[in-house]
Amino acid sequence: MSDVIDIAPSVAGVRIDLPQPYLLFLGDADDTTYLKTGQGLIDWAPGLCVAEYKCAGAAASLGLPVMRPREAYAAGARALVLAAASIGGAIRPGWIACLIEALEAGLDIVSGAHDRLADDPRLKRVAEAEGRRLIDVRSPPPGLPIATGRRRSGKRLLTVGTDCALGKKYTALALTGTFRTRGLAADFRATGQTGIMIAGSGIPIDAVVSDFVAGAAELLSPDADPAHWDVIEGQGSLFHPSYAGVSLGLLHGSQPDVLVLCHAHGRERIVGLTGYPLPSIGRAIEVTLDQARLTNPRVRCAGVSLNTAGLRAEEAEAAMAALSSEWGMPVADPMRPGAAFDRLVDACLA
Which part of the chain is the D-glutamate N-acetyltransferase-like N-terminal domain (predicted)? Predict the structure, then answer.
């Protein structure tokens, strides 16, 4: 991973002008479970992360220097990023004073929340008075098209999953970086707020009206040179009762040539919905390929990206080897570079 991941060129209608680098705002989080956006930025664009700032009494930390907004501005930061997530994507009332302090210190604010920054009259008033920007990356571009289903030139890879929050973004980023290292033309296509903040472009698929999800995916991965790869960040899961609709629209609009199935080792049930068991690897591949064939009959699954977080190195190696033997395809954790991941990359490019 490099200091700044340069992985997404401008795509018409989806480029976002984000002020950088960032002061990461951790809100009132007491543990890192709610800091997914901040952790993603540190993992994939550490050179953009100047410091962290949080509400008084908050216990969570991402290990960055702690600075107040004026200190961070003096250190080079030009935007405060909401690195914390709240239930329902809300901007919590207890955060407002901290956000106002950032605006008054000269920082713009970048948010991936569902709530709109300018909907808070206090933030809007201070931003206007200070000449600062309130940037909501979870706002899709206007005029999104209805999908046509037309076959596009170029090659496309989509990461899909047995559940949410198990590594689809990290897998897509790792594959993009490795494709480029091998001398291939490849671009990461972000579909979620953290990916957009890392790449500087993308479409927040979960904020798109359902009729336009597939069209947004078509816009995100347009016609390209036949040898060019678009590596598209997956969202949700076809097996998740809450988010399967988003996943299906993204699948159809992406028209992937290659799928990589993402799965978390040891996870047996949908997170937050314990009454729903995860599908087997075989079932997940079968259903996903069947649905993907609507817009690309030649789609194939290259292998499995296995999230082995929490396992020791030897345990992870054993788990990947066992699953690879069981399903007859490469299985690798993209956060553990080595022979297994190289085999997965080879299968994607075969």
Answer: 59-140
